[in-house]
Design a protein that fits this description.
Largest sheet: 6 strands, antiparallel
Strand order of the largest sheet: 20-17-19-18-15-27
CATH architecture of the domain at 172-383: 2-Layer Sandwich
Number of helices: 24
CATH superfamily of the domain at 172-383: Ribonuclease H-like superfamily/Ribonuclease H
Radius of gyration: 29 Å
Helix content: 25-40%
Shape: globular
Strand content: 15-25%
Structural class: alpha+beta
Number of strands: 27
Length: 818
Amino acid sequence: MLTRPDVFARFQRPDAGTGSTDSTPTAKDANPNPDVDAALFGKDPTPRIVDIEPLMDAPSDEPARVRLYQRSEDGRRITTEEDRLFPFFFISDITLLRGHRSTFKFTELEGDNHYRYLVIFNTWADYWNAIRTVEHRSTTDDGRPDELYQVGSPAQQYMMQTGKTCFLEMKPGDLHRLQLDIEVYSEQGFPNAKRPDDRIIIVALSDNRDWTKVLHLDASTDDAERDLLCTLVNVIRERDPDVIEGYNCFSFDFDYILKRCERHGVDFAIGRDGSTPRTYESSMRFAERTVDYPAMAVHGRHVIDVYFQVMAFDVFKRDLPDYSLKTAAKYFGFAPEDRTYIPGDEIDRYWREDRDRLLDYALDDVIETERLARHLSGSTFYLTQMLPMTYGGAARRGPASKIESLFVREYLRKRHSLPRSEWGTQSMGGYTDIFMTGVLGPVVYADVESLYPSIMLNYDIQPAGDRLGVFPQLLDRLTNLRLETKQAMRDAADDKVRSELDARQNSYKVLINSFYGNLGFTLAIFNDFEEADRVARIGQQILRDLISEIQDRGGTVIEVDTDGVLFVPPDDVRGEDNEIQFTRDLTSAMPEGIRVGFDGRFQKMLSYKKKNYALRTYDGSLKFKGSSLISRSNEKFGRRFVREAIELLLERDVEGLHELYIRYRESIEAHDWENVYSFARTETLKDTIEQYERDVQEGDRPRAATYELAKRRMQATGQTIRKGDRISYYITGDDPNVTAFKNCRLATEWDPDQPDENTAYYLKRLDQFSRKFEVFFSDADFRLIFSPEDLFGFSADGIEIQKTRPTSDVRTDENVPF
């Protein structure tokens, strides 16, 4: 039996008044119920914990322990402390452990939810023995017993049972972040760590304390590279950062460093305890894209790949051309004014001929990485102050895991039984419809402010399994905190303060937006499909009422999309002030607690299809929604053509539209490209090579250019190919209808002096892009505009851009956040 009779004290509900509020400036005065803040921020207010590491190297039959790393109050030192950890799980039927060795304690929890017992252990050996016993006795066939609910991460188990969280009483700038980037010499294309001569030649380093350092080889020898790697280890340990950041660092930089360290017998001992990193295969999902990668964990430090932060940002924005470091830095305005650019395939030449320029290039890489990380990591920092997760865990885990961890921690604190996930599906989604296509304007966007959260709060939405009412309490608290923080942000005079407040309010927004998705997520233990459908049903009715109100007041509705309406205001409502007033007045027709906000005005709109349109702002910039018009998977020349065509359509310049088509056609025929990436296509591997081959062999899919070229690249370079990797290629041959996988080459193989791209194929692609605009013209006019000129030339006289009213089919958006 456990030797400590008071072991459950750690899991018990504390006295009223316990809870951390210092992490939120407005929390103490604004929240009359400290119990809710204990649910949101944890019950233990220990400040400045920067990491929590389980001590898994000890024998598994010894008491489980963790090590806490805490920054001193002046921020200059790191102190450590060890503490006991009691591994635990929830179980539905305690008799499944009958006859098991008496190495645990259990307690029956309050309530009648499915997981009614909490089982606690002294050691990891006892914990895993009990898990195996339950698995053996379980009737579940899939290897994951329905009778068990486990919290997988040891650090997360500790944080749940103690109520501790990281970073309390800290600001983002208090965290010591170090950035790293390597450059590799290779005369054989893409670097291969297994090739002896493909050495690491440069390691550029920086941090958020105005420090930079560039390490580089002084000779092309194994001894020199070994010395470089040893120096890198020493520098990291001397700087002692809390966080190590890189760009695509998991799949390239760290993977490459570890392989070269192994080659030279160097211990990459950068852990705070002197240990080497632990590596494991992992994956992350970004909307429709799943990325497999070799993850790396460093004891006492967090490893953050800024590449993933950029992809996570673009899940919602959807307007980054690609995810390269240089593109991301330009997009956010973080590229240094005198930024040095060097093509990736010329690294070896610059190392030989202009080494100083290459060193400048490497340093610019880490400077951009630091700026991107500082901008994109703020909300994750503040999420870490709330969640029972470490910083690295909060960066990697999805919204479902985040929100569930808060609920489970509170149910554990209250010693209440947990529900299990209910099987089923959500039958209703968001309301989307289109009422007009064509060129329209001026346009106003009326947004129902926080539609689903407002519905959940005002219509008493709560999952059936939430017997403690944590769902509405946390949602209400987060909503109030966000409103208070946004007001403080508006009042702040200092840009740095505003930026920190913006990151804080965004962390609340991340959690708020997860509540609805959690209701309809199959694997969430607090799901409730009926309640999810009720939210969607109410949301649809509110939007229908809003549409009717706009029309009754003389507006012309163009499109409705889940939580807002695009419309042309009445003729007597012109100018920003009048449009704002008209929009806000719509609130009077809404149910109590539902507010209509003004979310933008636009000079013109190209309404194309449902959830696919282009908006031109009053400063002339374009905003796009949907992938039917411009998809990043399309060739660059096609995206440019469509964008330029839209600009001409908005100007009603039919003559210019025809000239644009002719210009692109002539450029294709003349091989007049900026570079190969103007016409190459870039696609993401959505499966592993092994899965692809199995599917082909079993007749479940045809052969595809992307995978065939990935196989070829893997064979040629020895580079590991993973799900989520991107392949750029172009089509060869002379027939427009060639079989792609038989007539394709990697983009890096194209020679501008001997162009071999398939001109007929790319002319066909131009015509396919042109057909996007077929809906805006009569058949005869469309053929005139988008075809080569004949003997009679082209005239735009009499050609009109058509407006149509599609038949409304009032569909719902089937997508839910998880």
